[in-house]
Amino acid sequence: MFHMGMLAAAGTGNYATAAAASQRNDLILNYERLSLEIAQYAKDIANLMIDNEWLEQPPGTMDKEQLIYQKKQNE
């Protein structure tokens, strides 16, 4: 599963490089569309690995509403 995720990330990079090097506008749009599809696939792989505890969830932002509520409770 991890290797598929890495291949998806490499594919996104390859399409971005191809879009930057291409001089045809119609191909650039196709490369960007394919890059987006692969990025969504890679996100699904990462979520699947997190759900099965094969990968740790990356740190997220703190819940600011909860922090404000706790601060008011402590006052």
Describe the protein in words.
This protein has 75 residues and is an all-alpha fold. The protein has one domain (2-74). It has helices spanning 2-21, 25-51, 64-74. The longest helix has 27 residues, at 25-51. The chain is elongated, with a radius of gyration of 19 Å. The chain starts with a helix and ends with a helix. The mean pLDDT is 87.
Give the amount of beta strand, in percent: under 5%
What does the main sheet amount to?
Answer: none
Estimate nothing, just give the exact number of structural domains.
Answer: 1
Mean pLDDT: 87
Number of strands: 0
Shape by Cα distribution: elongated
Backbone CA Rg: 19 Å
Which percent bin holds the helix content? over 70%
Distance between the termini: 48 Å
Query: What class would the helix/strand composition place it in?
Result: mainly alpha
Unreliable segments of 5+ consecutive residues: none
Number of helices: 3
SSE string: HHH
